[in-house]
Automatic annotation (TrEMBL):
Residues 32-42 have a biased composition (Polar residues). Gene3D superfamilies: Cytochrome c-like domain. The chain crosses the membrane at residues 411-432. It comes from the Archaea. It is found in: Cell envelope. The keyword Transmembrane applies. Residues 28-69 are annotated as: Disordered. GO terms for molecular function: cytochrome-c peroxidase activity; electron transfer activity; heme binding; metal ion binding. This is Cytochrome-c peroxidase (CytC-type peroxidase). Keywords: Heme, Iron, Membrane, Metal-binding, Oxidoreductase, Peroxidase, Transmembrane, Transmembrane helix. Residues 72-204, 233-365 form the Cytochrome c domain.
């Protein structure tokens, strides 16, 4: 009886094991039979507690990835982006002003390039810049590649005398020449570095890297995709206020920049800022934050109707890109909401409105992909920066200090003259009163 029992148990367990194994096999079968799409329950947006101003979430890298954005090209572009040796002084890279270790900008009012020179406007973020229809505050470049030609030779940015001089720095590094050959080999039929390292390929590679700088999956995106709990009570209030005030009439679309279809198409969405320049509160802001010092898009088109027009900037990650506006004069997000409200909507925002909208804007902060400083190719045993680069810099500093000294001297002289005049007057008065008293 006992033996029979044991045999039954053995048979039962073998049977169980066989069934389990079969189950496991069929499970692996299922996962091998193609990608199992995790289709998310996409709640209807009108079931959400508050209808979002823009119903599309962050489009993600796939939306702007170009066919030939290969891994090798992106890596080359990243190296060039981080390489300060392409600047006159060997100190300024794209990352100096567009720091991808943080908000993709420089946290300064206006950008500072070689020799401490500052330009007229603030550095915008490079995060999500691949989605822009045009580049720069005034939209003077259509594409990222076209944009990247500018800073290399701008004297307030990387300060190279011309593009050939910048390319010669790159050509001097064998590692770079090899990388260009690897990436663009198909179209190269020469082994002359001059033919291999061209401006077109340089900015093409930088643009390919910049297109990877996307920040999806913000709390706002999660909300739009149907997670009603992704936003707090105050953030929802802020979202409602954002719509009631009319902010989304300009800051619409998934980038909150007026448009995102046809990225890099050159079809800019611009708006005048300030629109309500006669609003009393706006008048103060204009004065305080230099809002009407630059011509805006008129500087590009020469058309008076474009005066004070600016590209509607993205509000993605805006909490990390202070200070604000093209002048970089507005220090806080709250203040920028007040400025927008007064100058664009003729409305004096209450403290509560401002706080709520600020809370909402922080929900547009997405997930930043991890960034690593790349290793840069090095020439062997020789300097990449000409030996007089430092000399130039010293000369400039001396000149600047000399100017300061001159100013100091003249101030001192004026001061001494005033004191001398005062003493002479006092002496004369004393003398006169003595004479009177006599
Ligand atoms: C000295 C600081 C500085 C350096 C260096 C610099 N930039 Fe910029 N960048 C700026 C400023 C300032 C602007 C805005 C200029 C304007 O709109 O007139 C800008 C604009 C941009 C824009 C347009 C973004 C938008 O929202 O319109 C991109 C993209 C960009 N830069 C990428 C680069 C790349 C790539 C490099 C390196 C080749 C680079 N920058 C080097 C300061 C800098
Ligand atoms: C009529 C169009 C328009 C409306 C309405 C509008 N904006 Fe703007 N917004 C702009 C433009 C154009 C700029 C760039 C202005 C500049 O740099 O001088 C801007 C800039 C901003 C900035 C600064 C971004 C940066 O990177 O420096 C913030 C923040 C902002 N807007 C938020 C808002 C909020 C919040 C509202 C509603 C209260 C609003 N905007 C309403 C057109 C508009």
């Amino acid at each position: 009886m006992g033996k029979l029992w044991k045999t039954a148990l053995l048979i039962a367990s073998i049977g169980f094991l066989i069934t389990a194994a079969a189950g496991a096999v069929s499970a692996t079968d299922a996962s091998n039979s193609g990608p199992v799409l995790q289709v998310q329950e996409n709640n209807e947006t009108d079931e959400l507690p508050v209808e979002p101003p823009t119903e599309e979430s962050h489009p993600g890298y796939e939306a702007i990835q170009q066919e030939d954005d290969t891994e090798e090209k992106i890596e080359l572009g990243e190296q060039l982006y981080f390489d300060p040796r392409i600047s006159e002084t060997g100190t300024i890279s794209c990352n100096t002003c567009h720091n991808v270790m943080e908000g993709g900008d420089d946290s300064r009012p206006t950008a500072m390039g070689v020799h401490g020179e500052t330009g007229p406007v603030a550095s915008p973020t490079v995060w999500n810049s691949g989605f822009h229809h045009t580049q720069f505050w005034d939209g003077r470049a259509d594409t990222l590649a076209e944009q990247a030609e500018g800073p290399i030779v701008a004297d307030v940015e990387m300060g190279m005398p011309d593009h050939e001089a910048a390319l010669d720095r790159v050509r001097a590094v064998d590692g770079y020449v090899e990388a260009y050959e690897d990436v663009y080999g198909d179209e190269i039929d020469s082994d002359d570095p001059d033919d291999i390292v061209t401006l077109e390929r340089t900015v093409d590679a930088i643009a390919a890297y910049e297109r990877t700088l996307v920040t999806p999956n913000s709390p706002y995106d999660q909300y739009v995709e149907g997670d009603a709990d992704a936003l707090s009570e105050q953030e929802l209030d802020g979202m409602e206020t954002f719509q009631e005030l009319g902010c989304q009439s300009c800051h619409s679309g998934p980038m909150f920049s007026g448009q995102w279809e046809n990225p890099e198409s050159g079809e800019g969405v611009y708006n005048q800022h300030p629109t309500f320049e006669d609003n009393a509160q706006c008048e103060e802001y204009i004065e305080e934050y230099d809002l009407m010092e630059n011509p805006g898009r008129m500087g590009v088109t020469d058309d008076e109707r474009d005066e004070y027009n600016y590209k509607v900037p993205t509000l993605r990650n805006v909490e990390h890109t202070a200070p604000y506006m093209h002048t970089g004069q507005v220090a806080t997000l709250e203040e920028s909401i007040r400025v927008m409200s007064a100058c664009q909507l003729d409305h004096e925002a209450s403290d509560e409105e401002v706080e709520d909208v600020a809370a909402f804007l922080t929900t547009l902060t997405g997930e930043y992909p991890e960034q690593e400083m790349p290793r840069l190719p090095n020439p062997s045993g020789e300097s990449m920066i000409p030996m007089d680069a430092e000399g130039d810099f010293e000369d400039m500093q001396e000149e600047a200090e000399g100017d300061e000294d001159d100013d100091g001297m003249s101030l001192l002289a004026i001061g001494a003259a005033i004191i001398a005049l005062a003493l002479v007057t006092a002496a004369a008065l004393v003398g006169y009163s003595r004479y009177e008293n006599q």
